[in-house]
Amino acid sequence: MQAKFLALFALTSIASVWASPLEAGTICKGQVKVSEEYIGKDHNVKVEHVTCPDAVSLEPSSFQPPTSLEARQATVNVCGAPCTTNCFLPAGGGPDPNDCHVITDALKFASENTGPTFTVGTGASLVPYNNTVIMSYLSCKTFFLNQDVNFLSYCRNDWASLVDFVAFNCQSTQNAHGGNCVAADQRWFVQVQHT
Questions:
Q1: Signal sequence span per UniProt (predicted)?
Q2: pLDDT tens across the length of the chain (195 residues)
């Protein structure tokens, strides 16, 4: 019972970071852009590395943070880690799944040409480490957010699969408009939404 309550509380906390009105083009309160680039075969998918400072102050989830400084600075590989898909209700206003598929192709292209993984910081340092990577193309925006105290490494092909799955399965035919996939231990999540 307590584990279910903690999971529900953490999801409620996550939602509160993104539920309040935001400035146009932002995904979180206090968002700070660290860098921007374009990727993909045609360099048409915008990638922003940003810090969402309020996300790092969320209540802890079921995992226990490391106690030593060296352990806290480790990079944890979460490739292949399970996540639970949630579609956003009601229908209307979701991204075009075909636009999202362009992001999927760009992620696969980057995996083949840059490397299979990427690393996301914690956002908790005085140095502006990014804890969020945002990708957008036309009507589709997706982001990976790290809520852990450690840097996380994630596979580009895993993200590509999630973007396609959520984009094509969380549409008006499912009474939805995008969605997310939250890691089982709630260290991270991937979201797909309209730009």
A1: 1-19
A2: 333 323 333 333 343 334 334 666 788 888 889 899 999 999 999 999 998 876 554 333 333 444 444 445 689 999 999 999 999 999 988 999 999 999 999 999 999 999 999 999 987 654 556 899 999 999 999 999 999 989 999 999 999 999 999 999 999 989 999 999 999 999 999 999 999
